[in-house]
Amino acid sequence: MRRTGAIVLCLAVTMTFASCDKGDDPAGKPGDEFTIPDDGKVPSAVIPDEIRSLLEETMPIYEGVTPPDITGEYLADSKVLTASNYPPDKPGKGFLNQYIAFTKGTNGKIRYDAEEQRFGLPVSDDSSDDVTVYLVGTGNRFTAYFIATGDTYDIWNKESTIISGTLTENGIVDFQLAFVMLEKAADPSSVLVPVNTYRVLNESDGLAEREEWLSDRENRTLIINGSDEAWTNTDRNEAYAFTDIGTFTKYTLSNGVWSYNSIGSYSLKGTSLKLNAVDHPFSITSDNLKIKIDGTEYTFVRTKAFTPGELDEALVLPDGQAWINFDIVYSGYIFKADGRYAFYSPNFSRIQSEGAWNTSGSSLIITQDGISPYRYTYSISGGKLTMTNPFGDVYEYTAGTAPMGN
To answer: Phi and psi at residue 242, in whole multiples of 5°?
Structure first.
């Protein structure tokens, strides 16, 4: 189970109350890929007896062995916190758009996927290809649930997820979502909420509508470039390098050399790729990106457009020196001649990140270990390094003596 977060202190989720009367005839019955417990109930291992009555006062927990087939993709775009037994929580708090999906996984059973987005970009995602998703209910009314374990802020925990609602042609009416903290390892700083904490969220507009989104997530994965590559088209003498934070760098080809042109933002939805707020029809495979620009379709090829290991020696300072920013709690970079870097903060007391670096023209590409590449435009003048990130933020670093031991 891939999880980006358990019930941490700052997290809250929302739901609307669902009706508890009998459901209509289901639009379809689930197949063998769904796991339906013999007794048609949600067990105490998912909702502990100590909190069950409290949770059920806010959220219906359906029973039965004839639930509807809930396979599909949905969007909950008006989530609010309905109930919680954690005192600091504030009911009525709104949350990010959440996309969810029930699809057939690689093990032949139903998998659950979820993704929260801000400004069309994912900020968290979960998938459950390795856990069992259970389904109970009657007619069109259902409750789906599963238990997952994982580490959040290096703290092991076990958490249950419960979803209830009424399946309709348009989506899930009275969609409600609950999280319960079942177990956790030692947590002396109380980073995670206590065991038996529950939170219930609902859709304030009453409907989690059907919305295809899994293909968009796959396309976002395909479009991202490595630190030494870009999507190139030599007919237009253009190249685009896309990041996983919704930005791109545009390059132009001149005399056989790719040079920095500009930085912008992008988003994609269905067959539309939006570059700096301008929509372009597109399609993508692992090696080809087709974009229609001004009515003409161009094929961009994933290319090693930038020489791997191209390193600007001016960034490499003598031993004992670093590029220091005195405005950001005395932090800074050390770029090494072997293509590795370290970023120290605060006060050079610890390494905040490290990884690889290389340059291409006026671009400085920093690839933190385990993270997608991040591109800056940069210049060096008079012992000062100026770096501009994709959002236009400018940072200045001065070559100086690094604190002792670094």
So the answer is: -100, 140
CB atoms within 10 A of CB 323: 25
Q: Taking a C-beta distance cutoff of 8 angstroms, is the pair 105, 81 a contact? A: no
Task: Kindly report the pTM of this predicted structure.
Answer: 0.62
Asked if residues 165 and 72 have their Cβ atoms less than 8 Å apart, the reply is no
The rounded distance, in Å, linking the Cα atoms of 77 and 70 is: 19
Average pLDDT, the chain: 83
Please name which of 83, 91, 77 lies closest in space to residue 162, comparing C-alpha atoms.
Answer: 83
- The string of pLDDT tens digits covering residues 244-271 is 778 888 888 777 667 777 778 898 888 9
Taking only the tens place, the pLDDT of each residue in 112-148 is 888 877 655 555 666 666 788 999 999 999 999 999 9
How many other CB atoms sit within 10 Å of the CB of residue 345? 16
Q: What is the CATH number of domain 216-303?
A: 2.40.128.280
Bridge partner residues of 288 (DSSP): 301
What does the alpha-carbon distance between residue 244 and residue 341 come to, in Å, rounded to a whole number?
21
Dihedral sign from CA coordinates of 29, 33, 34, 39: positive
**What class is the 313-401 domain?**
mainly beta
Position 396: which residue type? E
